[in-house]
Amino acid sequence: MLEIENLEVTFSARGQDVQAVRGLSLAVAPGESYGIVGESGSGKSTVLRAICGLAPVTGGQIVLGGRPLPRRRDAAFYRHVQMVFQDPYASLHPRHTVDAVLSEPLAIQGFDDRDARIARALDEVGLGAGFRFRYPHQLSGGQRQRVAVARALILEPELVLLDEPTSALDASIQAEVLNLLDRLRHERGLTYVLVSHDLAVVSHMCDRLLVMQHGQAVEELTRADLRARAATTDYTRRLLEASEGYRPETQP
Ligand SMILES: Nc1ncnc2c1ncn2[C@@H]1O[C@H](COP(=O)(O)OP(=O)(O)OP(=O)(O)O)[C@@H](O)[C@H]1O
Ligand SMILES: [Mg+2]
Hints:
This protein is α/β, with parallel strands linked by helices.
């Protein structure tokens, strides 16, 4: 589904270069749920942004469905790949109703059965028709994130990139949204790449995960490795220890 080979991302700000991703490679199979973890600033979000064409890629290549991605992502790309961001407050326009948020991608892609698709999308994320004409400030954080999930899924993408999709939410709401994402993945055979600093979230949601540090891949673990705490590097062991709430016996 997705192959990243030797990815390099370098930000240049005021004559200073920041190498946010250095020679990173990973491969995600169709239907897999793949996690990326690492300390703050390790380059996790930058990898997702690079896939979407939103980061300055200075080397390597990204292959989607067997084809290297062109420099610019076109509308067709967003039929296949969608992203959910961390902060549901920031990712929804304050003056756009839920209806407008969900209509926009459909309009861009030229769908004409918009009413039916919006109704179905709201239903699928557990928000009924009553939410359709509400504004973001009339929704709870969890409801907003459900709208963001509906927006991502309304075009029926195959690959969904999730950047800390629940870290802005309360623990109980977090579990609800994670369960929703998990259910939708199974129902639709979606492929996920999920970034989280929370190893409990990743071990609940992901089949495999990549540990990143300073823009590089440190090691790759399976869920079983993670649950057995079978990390091979000190860095990952420290992450495991530091991950508050990491209790293999109390999965969300
Ligand atoms: N637009 C930008 N311009 C300059 N530097 C950037 C930019 N975006 C990210 N960086 C730098 O790239 C590095 C990786 O950032 P990134 O946001 O990918 O980290 P992260 O692993 O997602 O961290 P967090 O867990 O805090 O979200 C950081 O050093 C950051 O300061
Ligand atoms: Mg980030």
